[in-house]
Amino acid sequence: MKSALYVTTKDFCKRVRFGALLAVGTLVSGPLLFLIITRLQGLNFDYLKQDMFAYHFAYLGVSWIIFLAVCLHALTGCQKICLGLPVPSKVIATWLMLATVALVIVLQLVTNGAYRVLFFDENWLTDYWPLLGPLLFITTLILVGHYIFWSLHAPSFTRVAFWITLIVVMFWWFISRYYPNGYQAKIVPWSHVTLWEFVTLQLVSVVAWYQGTRAFAKVRSGIAVPSPQWQQMQVWWNALLTGAIPESAPIPLSKRTSLARLHWRDSCHRAVIMGGTLFMISVLAVNLTSRAEFGTSLSRQVEGFVIVTMVFSFIAAIIVALLIGEGVSASGRTEMKRFLAMSPLSDNDFNATLFWNMIKACVLTLLLIQGGLILSYAGVMFLEGPEIFNGDLNLNVFAGLWVKYTIYTVIGFWIIAANMISILWTGRTWFYYTMIGVFFGGFSLFMGLASVSNRFFRTNVIYSYIFAGVLLTLPLLIVGGTIAAYVVAYQKKRIRASTAMIASLLWLVSSILTCYFKHPNLSRIDDIIGIFFIAALLVLIIAPFATIPLALSWNRHR
Q1: Can you tell me the distance from the alpha carbon of 146 to that of 139, in angstroms, rounded to the nearest whole number?
Q2: Res 377 pLDDT > 70
Q3: Which one, of 358, 409, 371, lies nearest residue 279 by Cα?
Q4: Were both Cys, which of 27, 258, 459, 551 would link to 426 (CB 3.0–4.6 Å)?
Q5: What pLDDT score does 418 carry?
Q6: Confidence class of residue 361 from pLDDT cuts 50, 70 and 90?
Q7: 17 CB contacts (<8 Å, ≥6 apart)?
Q8: Of 142, 31, 65, 108, whose CA–CA distance to 318 is shortest?
Q9: Euclidean distance between CA atoms 156 and 225, whole angstroms
Q10: Which distant-in-sequence residues (6+ apart) come within 8 Å of 19 by Cβ?
């Protein structure tokens, strides 16, 4: 038994290694790079240090989502192994829970330790950055999540209602720790965990552990069955997402349609559920619970809602890209999945089928997240009543704000998701590491050259040209790489000449129009640099139309 758990633990650590490094590196390097850039540009953001607590909830939300995503990715690979181990169910379930809890605790301690070294002073735990309370809460939340996850194999409407109520009550209890004097008083850090709070969290953890082990045992023994009402609802939901027609005579499908449905059910379906449904709920919960933080003005709250939705959409784009991108390769990324690689379709038809599935998944995910934003507005209307239309909210301004941020959200989501998928669909681990190394290495080189030129040539006229040349390196590489991808894709007949011409025309027109409205007067070198960065950002919109066919063909013909 010990040897089996040891091998499983070793496999879990191997699966989680890269994700953990990437998660901690992202959370630490993001604020650090922002600080370095502001210092190099001579900007003064010292006032941000006066209110570090204002970023505490943002850190908690982002770190919890990233760390739990890392755990889910590792557990997905270990789940089948754990179900077949010659070990009692209670031991396996306990190991799964403890492995997840230990990983999240370690990642939180490492990240907060780095923050202490880089950003915080010696009074950080008591003054503005509580650690023990949120750590105990996320531990309890993970155990409750395990219980809910294994109970999802035998769901019913009553249980789902109970789980939703439990999660809402837990988050309400957690937020109330920051308002010890009531919600009308000022928010304060949860710096001291009382004995009652500690006992409450431990009690919930023990109950969740016990119920989770029971649910896991039922799943392992094969007696976990959904209720009849839930099964009927599941048939309807699958029909809605997959287009399958339940209880109907079989209809002959074309090869391309059959492949599209298989690929959708294999990877895209899960991506829509996790990236769309879960983030829709997250957007709704964060907007309604944090609307007081956006200000007393209704217009400020509405603007806060769309910004939160945009941020969560970008995070969802990463989750969707990881799930869809990893879905085409077999375990270990040694080859493309057999049913995809051996499908009786030409490369162009194969690429187009998977590409349209990706677009469908992105559109559904964005619609679900926008549904969370609409529900947030409905919740505010319900809470405020008819007085909402008599306040300071101008409907024309509101509509313009919504349209503007929706366009930003769609463009940002597509750039992140499509370009990440184009990298992941190559199916080669060394290529992933190369892209990450090029990005961070290029950024480090940029920062080093900028620092050296700032130190030695600050008063010289050559400084502006050196700095401009360094800044232009990144956009020129992006544009040049995209042009090269289109040339290679056309030469290999993965795209048509009309596709390349339309993409080029759209890029040129959008770049010219954007630069005309953003930088009408090219009187400074900063305006010229801004034009190149805008052009590079816009070229990433059309890049996947060439890189994805190349990536799929490369992966398919190993």
Answers
A1: 11
A2: yes
A3: 371
A4: 551
A5: 92
A6: very high
A7: none
A8: 65
A9: 9
A10: 69, 70, 73, 74
What residues are paired with 329 via a beta bridge? 336
Tokens matching residue 351:
């690429």
- Report the DSSP beta bridge partners of residue 336: 329
Over range 148-168, report the average pLDDT.
87
> Has residue 256 got a pLDDT over 90?
no
How far, in Å, are 54, 76, 80, 88, 276 from residue 101 at the CA level? 26, 16, 20, 20, 25
Q: Using CB atoms within 10 Å of the CB of residue 82, give its burial: 0 to 12 exposed, 13 to 18 middle, 19+ buried.
A: buried
Write down the pLDDT at residue 118.
75
pLDDT value for 455:
58
pLDDT computed for residue 249 by the predictor: 45
Contact predicate 455/472, CB 8 Å: no
Q: Which of 299-313, 463-477, 478-492 has the lowest mean pLDDT?
A: 463-477
Q: Which of 190, 182, 148 has the alpha carbon at shortest distance from 167?
A: 148
User: What type of residue is 156?
Assistant: S
Rounded to a whole number of angstroms, the CA Rg of the chain reads 26
What length is written for the chain? 558
DSSP annotation string for 449-475: HHHHHHHHSTTSTHHHHHHHHHHHHHH
The answer to whether the CB of 263 falls within 8 A of the CB of 340 is: yes
What per-residue confidence (pLDDT) applies to 460?
56
Please give the pLDDT value at position 47. 47
How many whole angstroms separate alpha carbon 50 and alpha carbon 529? 33
Distance CA 163, CA 145 (A): 9
CA distance linking residue 246 with residue 497, whole number of Å: 42
The CB-based long-range contact list for 47-53 (8 Å cut-off, 24+ gap) reads 49/119, 51/128, 52/119, 52/120, 52/124, 52/128, 52/129, 53/127, 53/128, 53/129, 53/189
Query: Residue 245: what residue type?
Result: I
At residue 484, what are phi and psi to the nearest 5 degrees?
-65, -40
Q: How far is CA 38 from the centre of its chain?
A: 26
Name the maximum alpha-carbon separation found in the chain. 79
Residue linked to tokens 């039922």: 218
pLDDT the model gives residue 537: 84
Decide: pTM greater than 0.90: no
Residues 474-506: tens digit of each pLDDT:
788 888 889 999 999 988 888 888 888 988 898
**CA–CA dist 144, 418 (Å, integer):** 34
